[in-house]
Amino acid sequence: MAKEIDRNKLRQTLYQGHFGQSGRELEPGEPVTVTQMVLDIDQVKAYDRNPRRKVNPRYSEIKASIRAQRGLNNALEITRRPGDDLYMIRAGGNTRLQILRELHEETGDDAFRRIHCLYHPWQDDAQVLVGHLVENELRGEMTLIDKAVGLEELRAEFESEAGERLSRSEFQRRLEEVGYTVSRRLLIRFEYAATQLLPAIPEALGAGLSGGAVEDLRRLHQVIADLWTEHGYDDELLEPLWTQALQATDGPDWDVSIGREELERELATALDLPLRQVRMELETRLQRNRADGPREPKVADQPPPKQGSEEQAERNVSDDTDHGIGPAPAAPESTGSKEPIVASNDTSSGTENARETPSPSTSPSPALSTDDPEPTPLSDNHDKPEANANVGELRERSHAIAQRVARRYRLDIYMSTWDRGMGFLMDLPPPEDILREPQDPQQTRRGWVWWLLVVWSEAMDDNKSHATFPDRFELGRMLHENNHRAVHYRVGYPYLTTAATEFFSHPETPDTDFEDLMALMRICRQLARTAQRQGMDIWRDRT
After folding, report:
1. Is the pTM for the entire model greater than 0.70?
2. What is the pLDDT of residues 81-114, one digit of tens each?
3. Residues 6 or more apart from 333 whose CB is under 8 A from it?
4. Three-class SS state of 503
5. Distance of CA 128 to CAs 85, 153, 186, 324, Å?
6. CA–CA distance, 392 with 298 (Å, rounded to integer)
7. Backbone dihedral angles phi then psi of residue 49, each to the nearest 5 degrees
8. Domains of the chain and CATH, by start
9. How far apart are the two ends of the chain, measured CA to CA in Å?
10. Strand ranges for 185-321 from DSSP E
11. Are 199 and 274 in contact (CB under 8 A)?
12. Dist CA 541 CA 543 (whole Å)
């Protein structure tokens, strides 16, 4: 039988006071739900892992607005990491917090010291980082590299939780779970930018290097690696060469063409190959890579996907499918929700560098000058050299045709006759004569003609000709000093493999230009053959 409870003892126990330390105040607990607060500005700190590193370009404008209205229109969203004394910005608002601090210091106005906040219970670092990525994406304030580094930090958080390296597909799945979607194509691009390019060209990336430029570098990296291994070199030996070549050209005005030329020179030296051969080999491989699509890079320590698995199926999806980056879309039945963010990785990464090659979409304009009489067509054999012409005669003829073309585009002022080489030289235009303006079809056309005449003169062929150039020839001096970067800042660096579609076969290219340039090429070819047959060094022997 159960023992009977003594009712008197039970009553006495209930009447006893708290048996702990009387008078000690308990620490207030954190709110367990979203709560409005008014806090002193010193109680809130900026998010210490904010993915956006650059100062907001609208900083002054935002500051003027906050000053005028003596505070914020919207509450700052905050949270607090367990164990921290200070609250922290949860999703956007770091710029506004900094401005409030400055305004309070400048004015002493308490309106800037007391801030309205919306507290959210702490979840984890991954959720806070996602919140800042989403907020900055909505505002369009992030460069490509900021997004890339933010995603790499988020991957590290997920891997820390999982205790293992995540495959790309698993990373995508976890991003979707926390409300953030990134297409596989962009994920590869961001991963490459953060892990491969950031150590090499931090200034260029920080200045807003575009997604297209990053993709061009990734393709170039692949074909250089293929060429490197085919010559029997270890992959690990290529990475220092790649990084050092890009580091040597890094800067806020950097573009792919400058880095590529430095890489080509370093590669030619390392492989002991002629520079021309390296350039042709890389361009051929790049054309094939563009046709086939770039290979998907491996994730370190990532297990191979099983046949028939979801990850294998994803790898079979066309790499051209780009679903953007942003918060995960709402469920189909949620008709009242906002549209999902679909933002290109170039949203705020800066426009394409003005130094880049004229694009096919830029239609060349008619010739700038029509004062010269129309040249006789090639069919009349006017410009076909005689079979027994000597080097001196061929040089005179090549100069005459080159000058005729240059005069139509007001480039003849940069041309001079020469008693060596191909008989003529094209010098650099002054900085104010911009030959690489994508928005100006006339200048675009002039740029192409300048480059084609330089190529036909073979002035940029290799170092063996540079030492013999006239002292007044600025382009030759820069090439002799190996100052290719300064040259390309002035005139860009078009890939001549695109000349077929952008110039020669373009419907607006006059037949006279086409015929003259073909005649010039024919004469230059005969000149080189004649000099070889006569045992002449065309870069040293005068006529």
Report:
1. no
2. 888 889 988 877 888 898 999 999 999 898 899 9
3. none
4. helix
5. 17, 12, 22, 21
6. 58
7. -130, 35
8. 35-122 (3.90.1530.10), 142-300 (no CATH), 378-533 (no CATH)
9. 130
10. none
11. no
12. 7
